[in-house]
Each structure stands twice: as structure tokens, then as C-alpha cells.
Amino acid sequence: MKHLALYLRAPLQSWGASSKFGDRGTLDAPTRSGLLGLLAAACGVDKNDETRDREWLARAAKLSVAVLAFRRGDRMADYHTVGARYDKDDPWQKRMIPTTPDGKPRGTDLTHRDYLADSVFGAVLSGDDALIDEMATGLADPVWGVWLGRKSCIPTEPIFAGVFESEDAARNALAGRLRGSLERSGGKVAGGDSSDVAFSVLEARAGEEDETLLDVPVSFGRREFHARRVRRE
């Protein structure tokens, strides 16, 4: 078993679990589905290729994921507008949505989107050697762009923090990355040493979970997810 370490730092991050339509919230830590989406993009897994999408995610389902919050950050809400969608073949929309003389929709849709500002996280994915190596190769030269939850959340430094033979070694490497980046920026972690973890989100067995998240992706193309039990430390 190998352990892939990810270092997640950006001005903004957003990790939704069940957001839909106009309200797009974020959890207080990266989700399994968000991390696997990032890695799938780096590895070139096309969500429109249903066979490869499902096969790759079936392999990834066997990985365990531990998330470490080094800096919680601040929650920020964005008042956001997007162009109104309009399906001219939908009779209800044709009646209810005002359009211009050439048939284009008037007005905009309003959405509210939450972000985490100035958060710093680490993640350790543990499991099959071949899949971990594939992910590491993808992060070294991503096929598609990678971001921390949404396309607007661009990492401030490389995500890949190494592949290790033990989870403890991966965690120590992440703490080292944090110390180095804080020294360069002159920042501090409130409440303790730069290797302190504010909280962790870990896999849990039945009966020991603190919450259940719908964030085990089965198909990105069809937006299918299974539930996952997690506990916090």
C-alpha cells in the first residue's frame, strides 16, 4: 500500500457535497468526491466516456482518504449572477421566461456561492500502488486543469506532495510543506506550531461516524454518488 500526499492551499476553496441550483454551499474541508474529481482531471479521465469513468472510480473507491485541516480559513459568500437558461422546446419555459424579439432569454439567474478563504488543507490517499502511481504521474503533468472545488479556485502552489510508504511519513511531509510555505509568506497558524492540525476528517466504520456524506462518486458523467461515513478528530 502506498500513500499519496496532497497539499491544498489557495486564496479560495469550495467543497460542496449536496449543493444544487442557486445555493452552492461548501463544507469546512475537502470532500472525497472533490479530491477524486481533481485527480481524475489530472489523469485525463473523461466523464463523458462512461465506461472509463465508472471503471476508474470503481478502482478509486477502494482508497481510504484522510483530510487534515491546518488552517480553517474564513467563510465567504459570493452574490453571483449567470445568464438565464432557456429551452425553447419546453412549453413551460416558453410561457414563463421573458425573451427578446430574437428568442433569447432576458435577465439573469441569481446564485449564492460559498467559499473558504485562506484555508490550508492536506490530504492523504492510501491504497493500491498502481493507482497511486498513476495519480502521482497525472499530478506531475495534468491532462486537464486542476482546482480546489471550483474552476475559480486555483492552487497557489503545486498540489503533489509526494508518495510515501506510510501514512505518518505522508503527514510529516505535509507538515513540512506547510512550514516552508508559511516561512516564505511570513504567515502563522493560529493556535500553535505550524505542524498542528486543527481537525481531521477520516473514514469511519458503522457506529463510529460523526456524519454521513454523499461524496463517493460512482459516475461523474451521470452525477451518481454513494454515501460515506466519516469521523472527526
Descriptive account of the structure:
The chain is an alpha+beta fold. It has one domain (2-72, 118-232): 2-Layer Sandwich (Alpha-Beta Plaits). It contains 5 helices and 11 strands, in the order βββααββαββαβαβββ. Strands 8-1-7-4-9-11-10 form a 7-stranded antiparallel sheet, with helices on both faces. A hairpin with a 4-residue loop joins β10 and β11 (224-232). The longest helix has 19 residues, at 167-185. It is globular and about 65 Å long.
Quick structural summary:
Helices cover 26% and strands 33% of the residues. The chain is of the alpha+beta class. Strands 8-1-7-4-9-11-10 form a seven-stranded antiparallel β-sheet, sandwiched between helices. Strands 2, 3, 5 and 6 form a four-stranded mixed β-sheet that branches.
Question: What distinguishing features does this structure have?
Answer:
233 residues, alpha+beta, Alpha-Beta Plaits, 4-stranded mixed beta sheet, 5 helices, 11 strands, 26% helix
Rg measurement, Å: 20 Å
Order of strands in the sheet with most strands: 8-1-7-4-9-11-10
* Proportion of beta-strand residues: 25-35%
Structural class: alpha+beta
Oligomer: single chain
- Give unreliable regions as ranges: none
The CATH topology is: Alpha-Beta Plaits
- Give the % helix: 25-40%
- How many DSSP H or I helices? 5
Look at the structure and give the CATH class: Alpha Beta
* Residue-averaged pLDDT: 87
